[in-house]
Amino acid sequence: MKNKLPALHAKNVIGAKFQKADTVSIGSDDMTAQYDWQANKTLAECNRHMLINEIAFDVFFLVGESRQMVGAHRYVLVSRSCVFYAMLIGPMAGKVDEKIAIPDIENDIFQHMLEYIYSEDTKVDTTNAIQILYSARKYGITGLEEKCRRVLEHGLTTSNVCNILHEADKFDELTLKNKCMEYIWHQPKDILRSSSFGNLSATLVKEIIQSDKLDAKEEVVFDAALRWSEQECLRNGVIVSPQNQRRYLGGILYYIRIPALEASYYTKTVIKSDILTTEERKNLQNYFSGVNKDVKRFRTDKRSKGENQTLHWRFGPVNCMHNETTAIAFSSSREVFIDGVEIDGTGYDEEHYDVFLNVYDMDNQEKAKCKERLVINKKKQTYQIKFSSPPVVSKGFTYTVILKIQAEHRYYGASGRSNLNKTDSQPAYINPEGEFTRRVVKKDQVPAILVRPFVDS
Q: Is the CB of residue 260 less than 8 Å from the CB of residue 214?
């Protein structure tokens, strides 16, 4: 009598996906294809395969507002998250077969988090990073938190910084919020004029407008505040009117340095907006006509823009690279001191930078040099490297800054601008152009050149 193998059904092989068969032959190629998917895969690849193909799930979640069912493996979750540990086998654990509701995270975001938990990797970009960051924080996935922060901090643009700032403030991400603020201080005019500025909360608008770091004309600030108040009316479902706009502006209005406006702009734009009270109009009119300098709650001081030092900011997105020498050739429209440069930090704690900085003239003669060892803290975003004796750069001549950083991890800027315009404080015009053997314009480690006007004593 021939020996028969017992009938082998799909349900008897946990989670296996194949058609039910009554018998099977030993050594079958089909058997190998169906069961031996683990061959030549890493642990992360096997985990990912189990997740994607829904093999042997033993816990289920109802995710998002639509309560979409998502499966996973208890062992993997509890081994990677203290929150899942408490939820699944700790004091928070419910019944084994109970489906767990997670209404505050949408399915696609939850899937990204699971993919990272299973394989230490998932696709994060600026469009989804803030939501993934929220889910990673909620479930204690610290590696994913750091990944999201790095993507957001080094993917800021004038069009998305306000949206990211809003989310960072909402989720109490202080480091990310500070990074957004620093970006705004570097490019205030473009950001104040962007449509996304209107999406900010009243608290953030106040924080930006009241700051002395906001290097922009008051006309630009007033226009931005007025457009923001229009958006706030629409968000709250009320008619856009001067009265409603003033109600939402509230105390923000007093942080706009209206007395610093051009008198003609005040007459043509501010008065025409009709958001001032009768008493405010009277006080301001007396101020502009020279009758009375008391404007009550309005600030009359001009914004201080630092100690006459200008950051010539070149870069938008930032990426990671290792030890390379980079250089910028530049010329100036006036005589200035080159105090040094500003460099990006890194997302890693206790990183050490060995920094070598030199400046050469057109004849390749060294004008200044310095060497510095930095201890990098991931909470600090940028660092200034300064010469002990800043060289004077003459008008119209080409000079070159050369930077070398030795470190395990560091960042460089991308999409660098060649021409940097003057700001209201009238700094030198820096043009990173010219001829040098190792010139790099579009991509390098120097996001900002520190410039100070030269005053001949």
A: no
